[in-house]
Design brief:
The protein has helices at 2-37, 40-46, 65-70, 83-96, 120-124, 129-145, 175-190, 226-233, 235-242, 264-274, 290-293, 299-309, 319-329, 335-351, 366-370, 374-387, 436-443, 461-467, 482-494, 523-534, 552-557, 571-579, 654-660; strands spanning 48-51, 76-78, 104-107, 150-151, 203-207, 247-250, 254-255, 258-259, 280-282, 314-315, 389-393, 406-410, 448-452, 498-504, 539-544, 560-563. Helix 20 links the parallel strand 14 (498-504) and strand 15 (539-544). Helix 1 packs across helix 14 (335-351), helix 12 (299-309) crosses helix 13 and helix 16 (374-387) packs across helix 22 (571-579). 38% of the residues lie in helices and 9% in strands. It is built from 23 helices and 16 strands. It folds into 2 domains: 46-368, TIM Barrel, CATH 3.20.20.300; 372-598, Glycoside hydrolase family 3 C-terminal domain (Rossmann fold, 3-Layer(aba) Sandwich). The structure holds 1-deoxynojirimycin (NOJ). Residues 108, 152, 205, 284-285, 512 line the site of 1-deoxynojirimycin.
Amino acid sequence: MKRTNTILLCLCTFLLLQTATAQDAKMKAHIDGLLKKMTVDEKIGQLNLVVTGYVPTGTTVSADTEKKIIAGQVGGMFGSHDPVRMKAIQKIAMEKSRLKIPLFFGLDVIHGHRTIFPIPLGLAATWDMGLVEKSARIAAQEATAEGLNWTFSPMVDIARDPRWGRISEGNGEDPYLGSQIAKAMVRGYQGDDLSKNNSLMACVKHYALYGAAEAGRDYNTVDMSRSAMYNYYLPPYKAAVEAGAGSIMTSFNVVDEVPATANRWLMTDVLRNQWGFKGFVVTDYTAINEMSAHGLGDLQTVSALALKAGVDMDMVGEGFLTTLKKSLDEGKVKMADIDLACRRILEAKWKMGLFKDAYGRLDESRPAKEIMTPENRKAAREVASHSFVLLKNDKQILPLAKTGKTVAFVGPLADNHRDMLGTWVIGGEWEKSVSVMEGVKNVAPKLATFYAKGSNITDDTSFIHRLNFFNQPRVTLDPISPETLLRNALETSAKADIIVAVLGESESMSGESSSRTDIGIPESQRKLLEELVKTGKPVVLVLFTGRPLTLEWEDAHCAAILNVWAPGTEAGNAIADVLFGDVNPSGKLTATFPRSIGQIPLYYNHKPTGRPYNGSYQTKFQSNYLDSSNDPLFPFGYGIGYSPFVYEEMMLNIPQFWEEVHLI
Ligand code: NOJ
């Protein structure tokens, strides 16, 4: 019997391999034929990715897109999720360009497309690969329903510095967990067959080491040993590659002093030769052009360097489009380099099924049936409630009873829709999110509640100006003065038995270009919290944040702290599920919460020193501080629940350990 099974297994594997080889041969024949017909300009055109959306000032942008598509100068487009518009654009490529090569349609679908899930740092806190994969699958279903075939996700950059605003977009500080999540996200987006009309090609980013920007300042330089790279920072990218990610995005920073986008060691030796990556490499937004500011030369020089390093597609900057032909004529790049990059782009289009059916994901009837369905919202609620991390719960104040006591909900995030979704939600509609007050009414309709705003998110007008960079009134000053807001909140709280303070970061305080040097709760809200604590009533802090915050004071003075990150569309319902005990909080931190900024970088898997910390900061000549403990406030892995539990008699499964933690 056993023998028959083995024979059957061998036979199936053989047949699968045969089919794969036949498919590969078919793809090769198609692309060989196409490459023969293409002019050099058309080949370079495939390497050009244009944008339809927002463009930072001062950069080269996609103008005359229609003309370029007709001339075969565009390989793909990103920034829109309007299927009608995209179908019209695909039609231009398919009907008016000489070779009728279909376009990619990409977008930053980061934590859900229309139905928004928790920010990635929150999603990671579930430690549940099933939920992670499910969130990516739903995102892919919704995104492809709106015509997209490519997402710039997952972001798998390891980060140890909470000042960096993009720590919110990643999975925290652990390479193993980061790798598991990278794989689950790729599986979720791409499904079992990239050519299906509900599969979304993944783009793992930002290769490499973007999360190690010095001082947590976005776009800053990086300096790292090879051992730190291989042991901590590179594994999640590698895992995504192993899971079959169709594309990878270069990072803006230097790696070994060479910008990643021109770094041949990174793009070819490691990515392709060591890891066997078969997809294509796209730059980050104008990353080629930015290499001139790095000091590498003019646009022609940096474009040639990028191509020779192994970059295939140029996002927005049009360095490839405008200079590669000249570089070819001058012998600065070879025809073979251009052919190879073009082949990789065409192969991806083939694998995505675009040559078979360029309109496969452009079906206008899908959005009405597939977007923000009750099932999708239910999944978002489930995932969000599992991402919350209970940091403190004195005297079991949580869960709250659904009747009996009176509860005052206070804070600028309590009756707020705008900040429920978190950073990077192009397709997300904050108007459709559930606020905390709405969630409480849904889950505990009989509870006697009061509400008061209590403070602005921040009173600092210049900070508000920066938070509203995209010209939308994301953070506003209330017309009522801060003093009156506070007075009202104290009057409201006086009527209640328990105060739930709903405070923290607004969605625009974390994410790209949102580094902070002060990672505390903004001053206006902190002042409110101090006044609430002074009432002597128990204060439960429901904390919104896109990063680890410094919370020593809050930890010392609040009865409970429930960290809810930015939970997504179903925020309020999920928060109420946990506050009232329908769901037991089970999230665990994947990034260390320091006591103070001065301790950063602080992470769990650091190397020992010759003068180890002995738990006391009073000891001289040891690796410690004069004025602070070395310990974090809340370590990696931390998170309590409503039911007491202990981990005991833990055992390491050695064979499985070595199987999973395979060193590069
Ligand atoms: C720049 C960001 O760094 C990257 O993550 C994103 O995918 C691109 N812009 C495209 O929006």
